[in-house]
Every structure is written in C-alpha cells, then in structure tokens.
Amino acid sequence: MIGPRSGSTWQGYAFVGPFVALYCFLLIYPLFMGIEISFNRADLFGNREFVGLENYRRLFADPIFHQAVATTFKLTLLIVPTLTVITLLLALALNRATRTAGVLRGVFFSSSVLSVTILTLIWRFVLTPDAGLIAKLLGVFGWEPIPFLSDPDLTVPALAIATVWWSLGLPMMLFLAGLQQIPGDIYEAAALDRASRWTTFWKVTLPSLRGVLILVIMLQTAAQLQIFGQAQLLTSGGPSGRSRPIVLYIYELAFGRWELGYAIAAAEVLFLLVLVITALQYWAVSRTKADR
Amino acid sequence: MSRGRDRISPVALVGLLIGAAIMVAPLVWTLLLSLKSNSELMRDSAAAFSPPYTLENYHAILAASLVPRWLLNSLIVSLGTTAGVLILCSLAGYGFARLQFPFRRTLLALVLIGLAIPEQAVILPRHQLFAQLGLHNSYPGLMLPGLVAPFGVFFMTQYFRAIPVELDEAAMLDGASRFTLFWKVLLPLTLPAQATLGVFTFLGSWNDYWWPLISATTSDRFTLTVGLASSQMNYAQTSGLGFLMAQAVFASIPILVVYVLFQKQIVRAMAGAAVR
What pLDDT, on a 0 to 100 scale, did the predictor assign at position B48? Predict the structure, then answer.
C-alpha cells in the first residue's frame, strides 16, 4: 500500500525507535529500578541487602520526614494561592495593547528566566540581616534588620516570597493567553445587560478562564511539592530543619548519609503524593463541572 | 477578544508600579553590588547606593576564575541537549503522526505516561545507572537525561498531525522517498514548532540544577548553575560580595539575550499550552 499514512514496519521503528529506546532506558528502566532499590538497604556504592518494606516502615516513623512533609505542604499552601491570585490580577490588568502594559508584562516575566542559583544569590543579599537590601532600607528609618534566614518562623515565608517573585511569569502568560481566547461578543452582551464590572468578572471572565485556572493550579502544585534548590541554597533547610522540604531531605539522605535505599523510598512516597494530589484536584474540578 | 485599548486605571497603575518596583529592586541591587569593590562592601554593603563604581569584579571573573569554563560547559550541554531533543522529537513525532507500524498506539501511550512521572521518581536510580556506566562528570552524562522529553514528542506529534496529508500524497506521487518527504517537505513546515520547543529545551537545560548538581562533581565539569551554587556555599572564605554578585549578573546575560531574542516564541508557546 502506498499512502501517506503507511510505511513499512522498519520505517516506523526507524523514526520512533531512537527516542523510544532512550526513553525506556533512561526513564522507564530507572523507574522500576528505583522501586526495586527502595526494598533494599542500599548505599551509593552498589552494596544491597533486601529488607522488604523496612525503608517505608522507617519513613512513617521518621520525625524528620514528617517535618519535611509538613514543611512542603506549608510552602505549597503559601505559594500556590498567592501566585494564582497575583498572576490572575496581573493578567487582567495587563491584557491590553498599550505600550506600558507591554513593558510591564516583560518586567513581571523577566525573573522566570533566571536559574535557581541566581535567584538565591540575589535573594540572599536582599534578605540577609547584615548586608541585605531590606536591612539597609529599614536602616534608613533606624529600624532593626529582620533575620529572615535564621528566625524559625520566618524562613518558610522567606522561601515563599522568593519563589513567588521567581514564578510569576508562566502563570501570568497562561492567564493572558486564556483571556485572549474569550470571544468579545460575550462582553458586548454583558454590557447590553448593564452588568457591572464586578458581575462581568464573576459571571463571564472567571468561568471562561476555568481551564487555565485548573492548569495553573495543577502545574504549580506539582512544581512546589518538589521545591528544592531555594531551600538548599537559601536556608539549608534550617534552622533545625524548619524549612527543609521533602526533596532536600531526599538529597541529604542520598548524598549526605549515603542511604540510597531509604532516600529512594522517600522519593517514591513523594511521587505518590504528587500523583494523588494532582489527581484529586482534577477529580474535584471535573465533579463541580458535572454539577452545573 | 482583542486586547483592550483603554488605559490602565490609576488605582491599578499604582499597584502595578509598586509590583514592578518589587520585581526590579533586587535586580538593580545585584547590579549595583557587582559594580563595587569587595573591600568597600565588606565595611558596609550600603556603599552600593553611591559611587565610585568599578568593573574590577568582572575583570576578576574573566581573568582568574572558573566562571568562563562553567559558561562554556553550560553552552555545550544546553546546545547539545536542544539539538538532540529537536532531532529525536521530530523523528518520533513524524513516526507517530504519519506511519503505521505494530504497537504504534501502545508506544505512544507509553511515552505519554512519561508526562506524569516527576524527575524525583527516577533521578536517584538514574544516578546509579550513570555511575555503573562511568558517565558522571562528562558531557554525555549531563546531556542524556535532558533528551528524554515526552512533552516534546507529544508536541511534535500534534504538530505533524495538523499538516494536511495531501502534501505527503503529492510528494509521494512525485516519487519522493519516505525520508525525503520528511526531510524536504514536512520538516521545513515545522520550523515554528522547532523554535518553540528549542527555546524551551534550552531554557530548561540551562537552568537545570538537580541533575548537574549530583552528576558533575569536579569543578571543571560544573555547569553555571552548579558553579554558582558552589560559590555561594563557600563565599565566606573565598570571594567577596561584589565578586559573587558579578558572577550572578555575568551568568544571567546569556539567558537574558535568549529571552529578548525569542520573546515571541516564548509567548506563543505559553499561548499554545493554555489553549489545550
């Protein structure tokens, strides 16, 4: 058969083969390899001893792991709603063709092209009490510097602030793209009905942005549950582990204590958490959709 | 809806300007610090607010530090990863969109499952695997994990599917081979998609931290992200504040250039993601 949607078997495999082979070798294989190692007492150097569910049992009794899970949830709950509301407001304000709006879109997006190490370099010297920008500005008024990076109650909010500053770009762009998709005649109809701006927002704009809103919340939740670099570099998880998220704990277990099996077990639990939480969000949303 | 042409209301404008100041202030502060001598900053970092300014920290970076080496490593790894992703994803995208072969659907489904697997679930076993293969502290070792881009395959498959099949039929009637058809006829049509996927892969690879952190352990193999992390970890003993901030500025220049040059692709890619 000679048709554009045909081709012989070997041709098909020649085209998809290279990617699929690499994909299986570097993603699927490590995935199962990880599950297997998590049932072993294993170190970084290949020593293994099968211990069944021992690593998982240890995790559920490990107070440091509990603390890391709590810290991760705290960070996620601080960052995701704040980020969602701010970027939605930014998109609503900047969804216009003026020059000012264009420049401001660029400004709010710019931070998101920076790497996490540049982010933390910048924010370390904004936040640190001895040399930081905030301390110097407070000093102008004769106020005491705030120990953002050492006060146990301030490290988590400090990480959240730096992360929000860093992450505005993508959700803002997503919301802007969503706003562009709303047909203009809906607004004309709303104007004919003499709907107030407030009503128009709640009855027209927000429902039309539903899809984007879900996408933003799910993407950000999955990203923040895996927060790592900021915590490692800005606070090292301290003081006394109060700002240590799960991935930082995994890193410390594997490369600080060489407990590879235990670290991978923690990573599998995190994997499950991310899957379950994003699936729950999706389920909750699709259910409310069915109700209407 | 076309973008509104009305001006931003005064209340919103005040809020936006405050927000913009918060966005810009840390960047300006970093730039000012990088332009001051280290000894002056040692006494009081507030010196950054007033002249004299100097380029000595930038000279120090170029003259005697590993930063240019890290920059080179980052360029090699990011460009290599980007080229690899574009080649692999274009081939696979075309295969999945246009060819018939056993297990096509199964394989595509398998690849799409990859979209739901976070890096955390594979990064440590992958580290073991690369140790066994002796791939750590090498360019292939840094690049290979980035080549596994299920999103890229999904993206390219969608793009090839959107191209009318009549084009293929016409080319086949002219006697073009399967590969000529792919290379000469269809691939040029996917250039916008290549640009979008390329920019995103480059940004992601350039800014990647977790993998190079554990794979590159000797300082001459560091990428910029890992190198800057190591500088800030032990900055107390070695470099001064001004020098450190000059590193941050120096390291952000290439990526800001990419951002300015490819703004359109970035925005278009976001728009595409939102429509889905």
Answer: 78
Q: State what percent of residues in chain A have pLDDT above 90.
A: 57
Residues B16 and B121 in one domain: no
Asked if the structure places residue B81 within a domain, the reply is yes
B41 and B130 fall within a common domain: no
User: Which residue of B3, B91, B144 is in closest CB contact with A18?
Assistant: B91
Three-state secondary structure of A250-279 = HHHHHHCCCCHHHHHHHHHHHHHHHHHHHH
Residue B88: its pLDDT value, please? 97
Q: Are residues B162 and B212 in the same domain?
A: yes
pLDDT digits (tens, 9 = 90+) for B50-109: 788 888 888 888 887 888 899 999 999 999 999 999 999 999 999 999 898 989 999 999
Domain count, chain B: 2
Residues B166 and B236 in one domain: yes
User: Is some CB atom of chain B closer than 8 A to the CB atom of A219?
Assistant: no
Residue B234 or residue B245, greater confidence: B245
The answer to whether A83 and A255 are in contact (CB under 8 A) is no
pLDDT per residue over B179-192, tens digit each?
888 888 899 999 98
Cβ(A274)–Cβ(B118) below 8 Å: yes
Residue B1 is assigned to a structural domain of this protein: no
Chain A residues whose CB is inside 8 A of the B225 CB are 115-117
Q: How does the average pLDDT of chain A come out, rounded?
A: 90
Distance (Å) from the alpha carbon of B240 to chain A's nearest alpha carbon? 12
| pLDDT-based confidence at residue B236 (cuts at 50, 70, 90) | low
DSSP code of residue B50: S
- CA distances (Å), origin B81, targets A207, B52, B164: 40, 42, 30
Q: Are residues B36 and B102 in the same domain?
A: no
In terms of domains, do B88 and B110 share one?
yes
The radius of gyration of chain B from alpha carbons, rounded to an integer in Å, stands at: 24
Q: What is the pLDDT of residue B66?
A: 86
Residue-range definition of the domain harbouring residue B179? 65-275
Query: A79 with B171: CB under 8 angstroms?
Result: no
Res. A5 pLDDT band, cuts 50 70 90: low
Q: Mutating which of B32, B57, B81, B101 best tests the A interface, going by the most A Cβ atoms within 10 A? A: B101
Q: Do residue B210 and residue A9 have CB atoms under 8 angstroms apart?
A: no
Residue B43 placed within a domain: yes
